[in-house]
Amino acid sequence: MPVDPSLVGRVFPPTRPYAVTEEHVRSFVAAIGGAYDGGPAPATYPIVLAFEAMNAFLETEAIELHRIVHGEQRFSYERPVVPGDVLVATLTVSGLRQIAGNDIIGTTSEVTDETGALVCSTSATLVHRAADA
Amino acid sequence: MSLPTRTFTITRADLAAYAAASGDHNPIHQDETVARSVGLPGVIAHGMYTMALAARAVSEWFPGAEVVSLGCKFTNPVVVPAEGGVDIEVAGEAEAGDGVTTVRLTVTCAGQKVLGMPKAVVRA
Q1: pLDDT beneath 50, residues of chain A
Q2: CB of A75 within 8 Å of any CB in chain B?
Q3: How far apart are CA A25 and CA A22, in angstroms?
Q4: Which residues in chain A have Cβ-Cβ distances shorter than 8 Å to B120?
Q5: ipTM for the complex?
């Protein structure tokens, strides 16, 4: 079923505040084969927040995660994420088009800290694969 | 300036660890049957896993440098076999600009590009 076109421009509620811990950054770094020795989280770490925002969006719209393939991701940083940060992500649906029966969904998530300051803005293109693919 | 190419190996165990750490439990990164059911050639790495490896190479080339921006398209899936692993090569060309360095990356798996126009800008 195609995604509802009236979604474009909709802003979803912010995710629950997420407290970044050294332990979690260490597990994220270890998963990509690295060793964390303190300091800022890796550049792709804000995807943890953006992914939670995306999941909430998919659940609201009853879109099945396993039909989603990642098309594109861009991050623009105001500052690195560090342990101790308490972050939320706010997702906006920025675009929607159909190609070959697949929905191409554009989203932008703004990751902000406890003071409301922008930490990073990240945009994603999600390909929602047609049911008969 | 060409940067020294880095090679990383991805295994199914890495994908499980990454799913737990990132919260991305999409079964196409774990389950062969689900992956094939949506037309994929097999279990594929999270695009963000491959992107994280690209970012890791950048952080090794420019230790301690703040990343200003990072982006790519996911153009070809990285199929991760049930046994052993798959190698990802990350090559980079750095160009110094006004207070920042732009790193144009080439990320390949078995000679095929898997990321589209991956690029990082660092303050270095």
Answers
A1: 133
A2: yes
A3: 5
A4: 43
A5: 0.95
pLDDT reported for residue B108: 98
CB of B32 less than 8 A from some CB of A: no
| Structural domain span for residue B92 | 2-10+46-123
3-state secondary structure of A93: strand
Pairwise CB contact (< 8 Å): A66 & B53: no
- Residue B110 · residue B116 · CB < 8 Å: no
Nearest Cα of chain B lies from the Cα of A133 at a distance, in angstroms, of 6
Which has the closest alpha carbon to A92: A111, A76, A64? A111
Do the beta carbons of residue A106 and residue A94 sit within 8 Å?
Answer: yes
Structural domain contains residue B82: yes
Q: A5-128, what's its fold?
A: Thiol Ester Dehydrase; Chain A (3.10.129)
**Structural domain spans, chain A:** 5-128
A51 touching chain B per CB within 8 A: yes
CATH number at residue B93: 3.10.129.10
Instruction: Report yes or no: B123 at the A interface, CB cutoff 8 Å.
Output: no
Q: Is residue B25 part of a domain?
A: no
pTM of the predicted structure, to 2 decimals: 0.95
